[in-house]
Amino acid sequence: MSAVEATVTRVGAAELRAAVHAALTAAGAVPDEAAVQAEQLVEGDLRGHPSHGVRRLPVLVTRLRAGLIVSGAGVGCEWRTPGLAVVDGRRGFGPVVARHAAGLAVERAATQGVAVAAVRGSGHVGMLAPYLETMVDGDCVALVLTISEALVHPWGGARAMVGTNPVGIGVPTGGDPLILDMSTGAVSMGRILDHAAREEAIPLGWAIDAAGAPTTDATAAAGGAISPFGGPKGYALGVALETLVAALTGSALGAAVTGTLDTEHPSTKGDVFVAFSVDAMGLAPRLAGIAGYLDDVRASGDGAPVTVPGDRARATRERHLRDGVPVDAAVWRQVRELAEETE
Amino acid sequence: MSAVEATVTRVGAAELRAAVHAALTAAGAVPDEAAVQAEQLVEGDLRGHPSHGVRRLPVLVTRLRAGLIVSGAGVGCEWRTPGLAVVDGRRGFGPVVARHAAGLAVERAATQGVAVAAVRGSGHVGMLAPYLETMVDGDCVALVLTISEALVHPWGGARAMVGTNPVGIGVPTGGDPLILDMSTGAVSMGRILDHAAREEAIPLGWAIDAAGAPTTDATAAAGGAISPFGGPKGYALGVALETLVAALTGSALGAAVTGTLDTEHPSTKGDVFVAFSVDAMGLAPRLAGIAGYLDDVRASGDGAPVTVPGDRARATRERHLRDGVPVDAAVWRQVRELAEETE
């Protein structure tokens, strides 16, 4: 066992949720909202994405105590047109607002065919996959977008100007849904910071340094910018999503996006939830064909493993539910300390 | 001037459109539909994407004469719900049906906030950019998706199972719109065939051969499959778009997608047009902020060129309108021959 692996401990998902819940309520969160936020953080670790997991708890607690996150204020909603809701998160927990928005879009799509919930004033939503799954369970094709602080450089650019802007697509099938939840950055800043902490080099192509030059030095990368995935095309997608979200939510853009990683600024990002009703299309009977196609895709490696978006996270989640959730020991210690505090 | 460059001739855009129009009407197309299809083919060459340009004319003419494309049959439209139209292309020209569908979505979005036109039974639509521009001119944020014959291999897969499935996003700004029109393949099959014709090697990463191995041999690649752009992430996006389009249009999937490159089968692909009204969101006053952000992005190279999606095609189009459209001499000869035929 390496020194790095030795710092990881296994925690049961229920125990982890309970500790996060206790920490959030100790910091002033309303219990049912704390439960939603705790579940969403634990989902990050369960699915193998600790960068969206309980390691974000300390920032949430600090933001909550500073009034940058407000619990119990409810969610504002105005249907501007039959298919388009403007959602005011009222500085609430990202997952609380996001679940509400996803539910609004799904419910309205049943009669409208398609509906959008455009969210402002909400905290970091975490992984998109759980919302996509909920929307797919509501018999919808789902598109979920959010933006982040500027961490990615434009292709040819020398500094971070674009968020890691993930694209979330959920498609119902006869079987397991297709769930795409993918950042447009080459890598997460969390992974770069992990390498920096271990003084390990990063592969060329992950990031540039503060002077705009490609680097393998993780510390220099942490002070520079993440590269987009897939070169110019990934950059083009990321910047297109940044402007699409801004045009539909009135969010900030680029370096003006704040409030998801920091502990000083209100959230200025936006989130977009689009639900397309499969029933309204009359296409539910055809969904089994999509499952069959995806099985053919999985078999297309002639023995080599081929996965469909959602497969890997689903398998990881099952394994972690069974064997315990791997959590960095220092993070787990911090979570328990926060859980033992009183308001 | 190299041997390759010497085979390219310059043709005025109007002359090119007129010749394509004549060829299409000679093959039985209704004049106004021939004009729409001719304009869309010429737009491909104008914007520097000859793979979507007039070189596709011979296939269109053959399909038209074979009854696989039907001109003058109109476009069927059924609003299943207030926001969702099912469009039957009736085997019509892709651009004729696509323009109609884009117009339906924009018009309906004005009252609904968001509207979808889901298209089946339509020919190849060509570049997505012109439709995106039209939708943006209608004060909408636009999302346009289409799928193609299976040409791209899944990540880890040994054969083509996924279309080159482009993603089209249009965002209005105070100035030039952002127009993303981007295939999820690493490269077009047209470019691979060009290399094969010139017996030139292709870069590693563009394609695999028929046995599933990465290759630099263009001829082997033409008999194999294109790689997705950006590795596993580009594949994930491409396959997600394939299933999203299928779920919303009832289109075929993977190897069952036919009728855009071949001259034997009806079109079984689908197209999706989604319009989000900026006016309905009340966000038109904020669009100037998007233009300002994009100017900052363009300046982020500290002297090195940085483009925003749409910039390059716009500049190329202006240059080709001024200097003439570069067309392969053999293609231009063929266009003129087809134009001189009578039905």
Automatic annotation (TrEMBL), chains A, B:
<dbReference type="InterPro" id="IPR043144">
    <property type="entry name" value="Mal/L-sulf/L-lact_DH-like_ah"/>
</dbReference>
<dbReference type="InterPro" id="IPR043143">
    <property type="entry name" value="Mal/L-sulf/L-lact_DH-like_NADP"/>
</dbReference>
<keyword id="KW-0560">Oxidoreductase</keyword>
<protein>
    <submittedName>
        <fullName>LDH2 family malate/lactate/ureidoglycolate dehydrogenase</fullName>
    </submittedName>
</protein>
<dbReference type="InterPro" id="IPR003767">
    <property type="entry name" value="Malate/L-lactate_DH-like"/>
</dbReference>
<dbReference type="InterPro" id="IPR036111">
    <property type="entry name" value="Mal/L-sulfo/L-lacto_DH-like_sf"/>
</dbReference>
<comment type="similarity">
    <text>Belongs to the LDH2/MDH2 oxidoreductase family.</text>
</comment>
<dbReference type="Pfam" id="PF02615">
    <property type="entry name" value="Ldh_2"/>
</dbReference>
<dbReference type="GO" id="GO:0016491">
    <property type="term" value="F:oxidoreductase activity"/>
</dbReference>
